[in-house]
Amino acid sequence: MNKHISEAVIKRLPRYYRCMCRLEQEGTERISSHELSRLTGLTASQIRQDLNCFGGFGQQGYGYNVTELKNELRSLLGLGKEMGMVIVGAGNIGQALAHYKGFKHEGFCVRAMFDINILSGRTIEGIDILHTDMLEKYLEVNKADIGVICVPQESAQNIADRLCTAGIKYLWNFTPCDIKSPPGVIIENVNLSDSLYLLSYRINAQTQLK
């Protein structure tokens, strides 16, 4: 894909994909941009513009074929290709991610978890939990694509450095701090506090209007 796609458009793709999955499960065969607008909270014009960035998925007067659009979005998002993940940090967030069964359905497989405080031989959902000291040794002999960082903030940069040095090119960061990485490494940050603060802002703004 040669043309530049804005980050804002890319961030809306998962919303469209989830919507198509739900519609397909409900037995809907096709849907218009106006109906999608009602389901997604985006304008029909915005939806058409976003999807047109990737080609003509719909037909005027017909709308979008739900299954075809779902499959196109799945392909754009790179889902279904098996990607191995290692989770560093077996606290509440790390364990919640390990328990989530939806990842495997889309091709994301948690290979192992690491924590500085572990009981030898412990597992979660059949996933081995190893001491963090074994991280590099494990990655020497086991392939992983994504490193998931769920450690305390003060340890995040060190863990990121170790993952990158061990050859991990993609990081999913759940710590509330900005991590520096070498060129070529892609980081996706999930800041739960930021999301809650934005909700608080909207509550505050709405309250002030009353």
Number of strands: 10
Strand neighbour order, sheet with most strands: 6-7-5-4-8-9-10
Q: What structural class do helix, strand and pairing data support?
A: alpha/beta
Mean pLDDT: 90
- Helix-strand string: HEHHEEHEHHEEEHEHEEH
Distance between the termini: 47 Å
Helix count, DSSP H or I runs of 4 or more residues: 9
- The proportion of strand residues reads 15-25%
Instruction: State Rg.
Output: 20 Å
Mind summarizing the main beta sheet? 7 strands, mixed
Instruction: Please give the share of residues in helix.
Output: 40-55%
Apparent shape: globular
What are the low-pLDDT stretches, counting only 5+ consecutive residues below 50? none
Tell me what you see in this structure:
It is a single chain. The protein has helices spanning 7-25, 33-40, 44-52, 66-76, 92-99, 102-105, 135-141, 153-165, 192-209; strands spanning 30-31, 58-59, 63-65, 83-88, 108-115, 123-124, 127-131, 146-149, 170-173, 186-189. With 210 residues, it is an alpha/beta fold. The strands form 2 sheets. The chain has a 7-stranded mixed beta sheet with strand order 6-7-5-4-8-9-10. A 3-stranded antiparallel beta sheet has the order 1-3-2. β2 (58-59) and β3 form a beta hairpin. The termini are far apart.
Keyphrases for this structure?
single chain; 210 residues; alpha/beta; seven-stranded mixed beta sheet; three-stranded antiparallel beta sheet; 46% helix; 19% strand; globular
